[in-house]
Design a protein that fits this description.
- The protein has three helices and five strands, in the order E-H-H-E-E-H-E-E.
- By secondary structure, the chain is of the alpha+beta class.
- A five-stranded antiparallel β-sheet has the order 1-2-3-5-4, covered by helices on one side.
- The longest helix is centred in the middle third of the chain and has 19 residues.
- The radius of gyration is 15 Å and the shape is globular.
- The chain starts with 37 loop residues before the first strand and ends with a strand.
């Protein structure tokens, strides 16, 4: 899995960004010869309302692809990853605030990868919150709903966090 402490297990996306990209650590999930079915990208403005917009974009995209059965799970994954990207990805990258958070959905057959890029170098951490903590379970939700998830550093800065659902 491409996640802490093993980011090198993922290949970086092409220089054009995640559209058409597939995480190296999830290539074994692909059926040989599966071509890119479709992709869609959404730029998230740096506001809390962007999480709702990302969910709406996702539901519309999945519906258009005839993959409505993924909607409930993907909506939760998108909500968690978008919140993390906006909360941690922009906050920790103050000097690069002009770089937006981007979300891409990439379909290959019945598989859909949801990928978020942000300008921060901070890595996602699967936390183990106490019973009275009010947060910290987001990546556990992503892990439980996805076939695989992970992250990779981008050059010269930033990262991509992704999850594959089916």
């Amino acid at each position: 899995m491409c996640s802490p402490p093993n980011p090198s297990a993922c290949g970086p996306p092409s220089t054009g960004g995640p559209v058409g990209w597939w995480p190296e650590a999830a290539r074994d999930l692909l059926v040989p010869g599966t071509a890119i079915g479709a992709s869609a990208t959404f730029v998230l403005p740096p506001s809390a309302a962007s999480v709702h917009s990302a969910r709406s974009f996702t539901l519309g995209t999945l519906s258009g692809w005839g993959l409505g059965e993924l909607s409930d799970s993907m909506e939760l994954v998108v909500s968690e990853l978008a919140t993390n990207a906006l909360r941690h990805g922009l906050t920790l990258a103050e000097a690069r605030h002009h770089e937006p958070v981007r979300m891409s959905l990439v379909r290959r057959g019945a598989l859909v990868t949801c990928a978020f890029t942000d300008p921060a170098a901070s890595v996602p951490v699967l936390r183990y919150p106490g019973p009275l903590d009010v947060g910290g379970l987001g990546l556990h939700i992503v892990e439980s709903l996805s076939l695989r998830w992970g992250w990779s550093a981008l050059s010269p800065y930033g990262k991509i966090v992704w999850a594959v659902l089916s």
